[in-house]
Specification:
This protein is an all-alpha fold. The protein has one domain (15-75). The chain contains 4 helices and no strands.
Length: 77
Amino acid sequence: MPKQVIIEIPDEISERDVRIAIAVQLYRDGRLTLKQASDLADLCVEDFMKVLSEKKVSIINWSEEDLQKELKNADSF
C-alpha cells in the first residue's frame, strides 16, 4: 500500500521539482523501477527517461551481477 508523506518545501521550489528529484534519486539507488519512478515523478515513462538523460543517470539500472548474466547470455548466441 502506498504511503503518503507530507513535507514543507520553500516557496521557490515546486512540488514537481521535488517529486522528480526524489524519483531520480530512488531510481539511481535501485529502490524503484523505471515505471515506479516515473509514476512518483508524475511523468510518463518516456518523459522520465528524458529527465534521467538530462541528469546523466543511466536508464539501464542493472547491478553488476545482472549485467554479467546478460553478457553471458549474449555470448551463447
